[in-house]
Amino acid sequence: MGKIIKRALAGAGAVALTVTLAGTASVAGGHHSRVTTPTLTGWASLPAGTFVPGSEPSGSLVTGNLNGFTAPFADQPVQGFSGIADNGDGTFDVLSDNGYGNQANSGDFLLRVQRLAPVFRDNSVDVLGGVNLTDPDGFVPWKLTRADRVLTGADFDVESIVKAKDGSYWIGDEFGPYLMHFDRAGRLLAAPAPLDGVVAPETAARTGVPATLGGSKGFEGMAASPDGRYLYPLLEGTVTGDTAGSLRLNQFDLRTRKYTGKRWTYQLDSPSHAIGDAIAVDKDRFLIIERDGGQGATAVHKKIYLATKRSNGMLAKKLVVDLMNIANPRRLGGFGTTFTFPFQTIEDVVILDDKTIAVLNDNNFPFSSGRAAGAADNNEWITIALPESLHPDKRVLR
């Protein structure tokens, strides 16, 4: 069931390669018997200490408990997965987070889309290359960190990604919050698009416009309508004046490149929770990751909901998977018969087929330690068989 994939990745930091993949996510998700409860069907792990070979040093401003690592790092870490796009060939484009947790310490972290492939046969993840995000044509009107206009974690906090049919990327940012459009080589194609009335503290500090949103609470998730016309970026935080724990899901028209004014509200189970990702199931339904801030022994609420548009502007919620209670009868990954995903941040979900999803964590390298105290988390990649079909629009499946 292996696939031979030949791929030349263009742009900064890209590589050309030929690899053989066995046990890819689609395979792991497509061969399982009927289950009566969400069940683990695949587990793979990318070690925390994985770096982009021949890249630039990073982490010169990182301080605190590094869980066994020493900064600065000789290369750029392959870490912090905060968004995923299925290429339909056993590979996935995965968005790295903004760096080391905040704007002040991430100026030498290069924003990047990584190309990865899980190999469930041996529980590993292949790193196939990727592209750095850049602004060579000067669409960002304010001063960037680097004169060469390679984007860093001090410029934007990229958290969500949609891959268009032409191979370009729409990426959601938290510092604006902004929508940003990049070509397949990672080059920005237009000025970052703001959301009227919603201002993050990072933008407030630069512009003097009062903030209406908490720090790092911008576009954490973003779905695309199955017909490719609309984007649905979902805020991670509550806008000033809104009900506590309510999050805005806005509609953005890709034809006009403007927000339509339509929006829906996702209500968190607790105002202390956050969302990790949002993807489309069809034109009216979304999968949304909702989580608490705990890790390891303090991780309690790590769930995926099916959220459905209602005429009253709300999103109705139905539990799909409790990520702290997944059946594991085959004891995959060396874990027991009940598998948990006890990470602080879980920020990636993708639909593999009508009854299978994949989920990835953001390991916040090197800070998170949900698997073992004192040890930096790896990036884990799991596939889960569902007892009921999601009945997804076939256009959302690659």
Automatic annotation (TrEMBL):
<feature type="signal peptide">
    <location>
        <begin position="1"/>
        <end position="27"/>
    </location>
</feature>
<feature type="domain" description="Phytase-like">
    <location>
        <begin position="76"/>
        <end position="365"/>
    </location>
</feature>
<dbReference type="InterPro" id="IPR027372">
    <property type="entry name" value="Phytase-like_dom"/>
</dbReference>
<protein>
    <recommendedName>
        <fullName>Phytase-like domain-containing protein</fullName>
    </recommendedName>
</protein>
<keyword id="KW-0732">Signal</keyword>
<dbReference type="Pfam" id="PF13449">
    <property type="entry name" value="Phytase-like"/>
</dbReference>
